[in-house]
Amino acid sequence: MTPKQKQKYEDLGFAKLDTDREARTGTGEAVYCAGKTPEQLLRILRKFREKGCRVLGTKCSAEQAKFITDAGEQIRYDSISRVISLLGDAPAKQKRGRSAGKLKRAVNLGPVAVCCAGTADLPVAEEAAQTLEFYGVKVNRHFDVGIAGLHRLLSKIGDIRKSKIVIAVAGMEGALPGVIAGLVKSPVIAVPTSVGYGTSFDGISALLTMLNSCAEGVTVVNIDNGFGAAIAALRMLQIK
Amino acid sequence: MTPKQKQKYEDLGFAKLDTDREARTGTGEAVYCAGKTPEQLLRILRKFREKGCRVLGTKCSAEQAKFITDAGEQIRYDSISRVISLLGDAPAKQKRGRSAGKLKRAVNLGPVAVCCAGTADLPVAEEAAQTLEFYGVKVNRHFDVGIAGLHRLLSKIGDIRKSKIVIAVAGMEGALPGVIAGLVKSPVIAVPTSVGYGTSFDGISALLTMLNSCAEGVTVVNIDNGFGAAIAALRMLQIK
Amino acid sequence: MTPKQKQKYEDLGFAKLDTDREARTGTGEAVYCAGKTPEQLLRILRKFREKGCRVLGTKCSAEQAKFITDAGEQIRYDSISRVISLLGDAPAKQKRGRSAGKLKRAVNLGPVAVCCAGTADLPVAEEAAQTLEFYGVKVNRHFDVGIAGLHRLLSKIGDIRKSKIVIAVAGMEGALPGVIAGLVKSPVIAVPTSVGYGTSFDGISALLTMLNSCAEGVTVVNIDNGFGAAIAALRMLQIK
Amino acid sequence: MTPKQKQKYEDLGFAKLDTDREARTGTGEAVYCAGKTPEQLLRILRKFREKGCRVLGTKCSAEQAKFITDAGEQIRYDSISRVISLLGDAPAKQKRGRSAGKLKRAVNLGPVAVCCAGTADLPVAEEAAQTLEFYGVKVNRHFDVGIAGLHRLLSKIGDIRKSKIVIAVAGMEGALPGVIAGLVKSPVIAVPTSVGYGTSFDGISALLTMLNSCAEGVTVVNIDNGFGAAIAALRMLQIK
Amino acid sequence: MTPKQKQKYEDLGFAKLDTDREARTGTGEAVYCAGKTPEQLLRILRKFREKGCRVLGTKCSAEQAKFITDAGEQIRYDSISRVISLLGDAPAKQKRGRSAGKLKRAVNLGPVAVCCAGTADLPVAEEAAQTLEFYGVKVNRHFDVGIAGLHRLLSKIGDIRKSKIVIAVAGMEGALPGVIAGLVKSPVIAVPTSVGYGTSFDGISALLTMLNSCAEGVTVVNIDNGFGAAIAALRMLQIK
Amino acid sequence: MTPKQKQKYEDLGFAKLDTDREARTGTGEAVYCAGKTPEQLLRILRKFREKGCRVLGTKCSAEQAKFITDAGEQIRYDSISRVISLLGDAPAKQKRGRSAGKLKRAVNLGPVAVCCAGTADLPVAEEAAQTLEFYGVKVNRHFDVGIAGLHRLLSKIGDIRKSKIVIAVAGMEGALPGVIAGLVKSPVIAVPTSVGYGTSFDGISALLTMLNSCAEGVTVVNIDNGFGAAIAALRMLQIK
Amino acid sequence: MTPKQKQKYEDLGFAKLDTDREARTGTGEAVYCAGKTPEQLLRILRKFREKGCRVLGTKCSAEQAKFITDAGEQIRYDSISRVISLLGDAPAKQKRGRSAGKLKRAVNLGPVAVCCAGTADLPVAEEAAQTLEFYGVKVNRHFDVGIAGLHRLLSKIGDIRKSKIVIAVAGMEGALPGVIAGLVKSPVIAVPTSVGYGTSFDGISALLTMLNSCAEGVTVVNIDNGFGAAIAALRMLQIK
Amino acid sequence: MTPKQKQKYEDLGFAKLDTDREARTGTGEAVYCAGKTPEQLLRILRKFREKGCRVLGTKCSAEQAKFITDAGEQIRYDSISRVISLLGDAPAKQKRGRSAGKLKRAVNLGPVAVCCAGTADLPVAEEAAQTLEFYGVKVNRHFDVGIAGLHRLLSKIGDIRKSKIVIAVAGMEGALPGVIAGLVKSPVIAVPTSVGYGTSFDGISALLTMLNSCAEGVTVVNIDNGFGAAIAALRMLQIK
Fold first, then answer.
1. Of A97, A120, C166, F101, whose Cβ has the fewest other Cβ atoms within 10 Å?
2. Which CATH code is given to the segment(s) C107-237?
3. What is the ipTM of this complex?
């Protein structure tokens, strides 16, 4: 760890922004908005923009989004997926300011199929889809293709097979990723959701199903973590 | 899976309605209302009606129900059981439009005994009872017959024995289904409820009791899943 | 509870044999062999035979079975499913001794499809199948039809649809019953098994999957409880 | 805590024997044998005898019991309940050595009804029964009266009602104590056992059932803790 | 179960009031208010009064209490313990109406010591204390005597020892009942509370501590179940 | 326990204030505010002040703080960490009133490094830091040094190594304390936080990580218990 | 599902071999050996070979391996990782018999870095490594690089960064994958192991850590599932 | 991380020995023996000795110890605590070979009080005590001082108060550390053990009790982790 490396972050006191992350890991830092005050969130987003880093916020509440808008920022905010980003300047800076040592923005990556089992899983599926699109990846959406009516999935399987990666999102019983993995060749990233009641245990049931999938090629992320699935997919697409 | 089969659903983008389900499984798709926006719910219910399918919604909040009424629909909604259905046209369409390939509505099925241990279990018991009645099954209700005062149950056991199936609903200790199963010949479908506090763990205690029942003939559904118990009973009644 | 009813059991001190159970519930008492000494087990089986009751033992260890054989009894014992019964006399007695007040043995019931997801689930599937056959029910076996290779299940779905009831047995992810329930009209009794490792948690993962099944018509029994599924199926077949 | 009180134990280094316990709490210290080496156990039992204290060992393995016998001691040991005590001298010493300040041995206490649901619960029920008898309490045993055949329990309920306390032992679903508590006036001490498989979770299911009992008057002890139930009963009998 | 016994309840449809319970078990039915509508609760309380039964309600919300007052009833309601009872007439009826076959109200029972570890445990402790007082039992309260400052408990131990029974209430670590049980001769009823945060897991930590108490003579009730502890104590006091 | 010791607390009925604690354990009693009514809290704080004890309140809600201010008290209250203390008089009294038998306030203790993994962990980290400062310990704060950008931590490791103790606070994966412990010689007190979602299970994931740390020298406190970590650190600093 | 597809498996009765899987999903079926009798395992392996499919067995016990050797087969078996495969003929058949419609064996894929935290994690790491090598992928092993001595990992990070994918295996606290993911650009597949004791809970602690990783790009497989990680990596390498 | 630092370990392939750890963290690496083959263990111990590092092995089975003895090594091995170390040469090397840059062996540290609640907790208590003694710390043992007989603890509290740190070991209810922490000024390190049955859940009950301790100054380590408690104590003693 050289002294140079050690300085590659911005220190706000309550936060140390990892402005070096994209160069190091291929994707910039994302801001987990939950648990931060609106003021903290605003300062973090502005500082990243100031340093020429595009940054995405996840699990952003409507209140936080409103605070940022009220502060005069233009944002891209989706109330379903609760994904937020500041508009405009960052991509511009990015085009100009990126020197050789920095990572080029992914172009023409994908497509990635984002599938979900039910309509209630849509927020998590959209978090994944919008994160991918933020990073320039083409997304094919296939929603409400759960296994209770298998023909819905089978009618789309041709399209899904053409995707380089499948992100499969499901709550309740969580069987969708395993069924898909038995039908395609691409990696399947499984995202359990907290959708359900009773013994769904806020997503534990779906998570366990996915971890125990008999079908091969399934890997799993945290419950409701559409963002994490998208970033993992992005890394897979960038394998050289 | 033939091309014909593959098209047997309606695609709303955020939802793919399984209009073929009744022909395939004997009961139409039901709409799990929780986690859907009121707009999504309304569009789904209307589309099913448009296709001539009767459909039931479960776990429907008062807000969702009000939104649908405000949109001009006439509904049957029970605020205790949170079961919803659109009024009027579907049964009419059903009488006219059902061709040979579609399933005839169950007539004169039952009776099914729906028992619950305590008054607080009533919402789940009613979800089961009203689902059955929606599908034309006669229901005998026996509420508050929990085992703390066994004579209440025993005084009704004659009636219960005359039912073809027993749906036994209980929270807290969840012992009711096992006690009934030791006294009758019919299948007993056990429904744990999230009623209780402390170590009831929102229904886990009752669920475990039911899964471990020493008495034979008990099968179990998810916590608070009165709907699921009713549909399972309907399938049992339709065994040919 | 009349005095007459009160005497309808045999008291061995360490056990009170419910010789009245078949008249009351439609199926005789079964003996859960685990946790009993071989001597206790032998005395129980002999006493049931003496009273003219056919009785099945479950989870019977090889040691227990050997002890009973060594004591001079002829048994039917399957080391895979660990189901045991005494040979010969009971059915004979049954034919002769059964008066009007007793239940006639089920004849020509079924068929019931017993499906399992993997080869390792076979012991539990066989416990279900042999229990059904013990009670005179025809069984169609479909083993190793798990969802990782969906075409195996789909190639058998025609046969499965002809069964009056489906018992679906699965460990690991436990998705089989839900997939089947979306394709058939009959009741599906789901049996989770303790097959798997890591997060299968000795069957909890499969159990949760089954309880959260999006497909309708699924009810669930305890982990590894093939016997319980069979008895529940028997009650369903006897609905009058 | 006066200096005098502080010395009221025997220090063996690896163990400090609470020879004052009976005077303080009404029952002497018991030895939890599991996790002790045979040598430690032997030294503890001998030291208690030397001090004129009667002492009971619980969860004593056959190996431990044999070691003690081989060392020349005469013991009372039951391989089912795994309760052990040294024979002979202690009661003798007790009669002579007990001065006014010490507790008189309970005489003619009880009766306590010890009930269990199934034959496999017998070891725990016997641990309770033999502990009570060790302390001079009369015990009425009612074994295998589980709720799957309710008439077995009801036929004995008259006897059970005559007992001053009921200890109700059950594994699996654990419903027995709650059913009894609804039928009697005496306190019911519920003992869950680790009998069962799958979702019995080594007694957790039965424990939860008992803690959630709708019937009043039930208190609960640890899984398989027949000894603890007996001592609690003894304290109840000694209320003055 | 004779026909006469079978009729010993009042049927309100949504509830079957066990008016026979006091005669059968020594204490009348109590109403678990949570999960009942105010209307249901009111009808239940009035019906019990009409039948001359004194009845206690537990876990009664302020809203429920207000509804009942607004309906013209005079109540005794404690917002801390959430215990409710109707005023006035029941005791009067009780004096007149009780014939030989009914239970005489307990007189001069106790004292019972009700101890709690911290101030936050007070609601549960008061639920126990007020239930006991409702049934005529004298109560000695010892609050905030947790083990972090052992001298507070030890300074009261003389008073506690004079009580016939100890109810020990504690959240967080839940060690109080075990410490007390090692110092007294009376039965100790342990009540875990949901007080705490993090790994207190809403009372599970305290519950497990109590179930595993090394000290003898402890029995346990459900988390936050002060009522249950009181009724169990009442049964113990009535041992004849 | 001498009579003198027994009186070393103030009895408010609902609370027994352990005014002797500082002399006995080196730190005064702290008030866990959650679950207390504002009135109780006010009376407790005032009584401690009256007795010349400085006292800290934790988990104090804004409502409670406002009530105390409205009652005319001057307080030090931090809405992030929810730590409260009364201003002014106590330290003054402390200087005057402390006799030889009482503990001298810690002076020039520390420094202690308080590190946290993310911005959302700040409330817990501040609870620790402010508690330490309340007792006169110097604190070095290092916030947002989680392992996703290891260079942030490594750039501060020199400062951290100079601290006598490290308090490491983290939610989600909770790996920070283990990484630090492998790099420093001082004791590391790990504080899991409830920050995260899905499988963070309100801090259980972080707690388990910390308990299983491969690095040596880590001890752990309850989830979100910044206060407890601070007091433990204080005891370590006072080892003589 | 065409008739042709339906026949693409071999039916042994107790098993249906998915001989079509490689064509469909890119990797052939693997045999989960646990829970199969040696006879079943042998028949399955031979049948796959007969059909020209290379097949890998996982979790194969030494007893199973010996049975197969004793039956005259030549095997490749590693007692640490418990991976088994039949020697010789399959690769030969593969070269000759594979027509255009079948998948070509992966050649020169990788490298994949397989890292593990401690020596005890080696069996799982080897299961991953040997599975990859079986499918022709180059593997770089980096064992015992856990975070307690971070310099071990950092000294290897240059090599790890050159790998296309990282499989990171860890038990106990399971922090290794997250630390690596913060330092590299490639996808990180995390494999929790059951190594540890106490609160490692047979791998649950490590699993949760990995699912909650703050670092991006981590996906997770079942506890001890080195095989699953390898197959997922293989799919990632084959993205086209 | 400089190149020099990077080389500060010995690479055996299956293990990378952290020979720099003592210089970095104050205590040398310890070997967790479980899960290692005897051959691996022997090579690791020899390599450490070769490099002049004293090293301790924990959780070493009798089989492993015998293998090492059979290989010609002289060992110090305690079959109760399962702690192992090689005899002889290391201390010698240590005296000679340690230059200024290396840590001097702790001399005259302590005393540390190691207390345990019951005899069955002795193995864990001894693991702590022997680890401390290995590092030159004086230990005061107080065994079997559990709270069921509080006078045993109180009679020793004077000695315990003179210790600089208390390690309190307990299974079952785990209340000992909290009681001690309320009586002393020194830090209390709590070690839960897996001693107990039923709801002790292999130490979870004791762990939760300790994490929820109302008394201040308690920190906790993993279940059965006597070694970890000792190392944490050593770090505390070395605070400068």
1. F101
2. 3.40.50.1970
3. 0.90
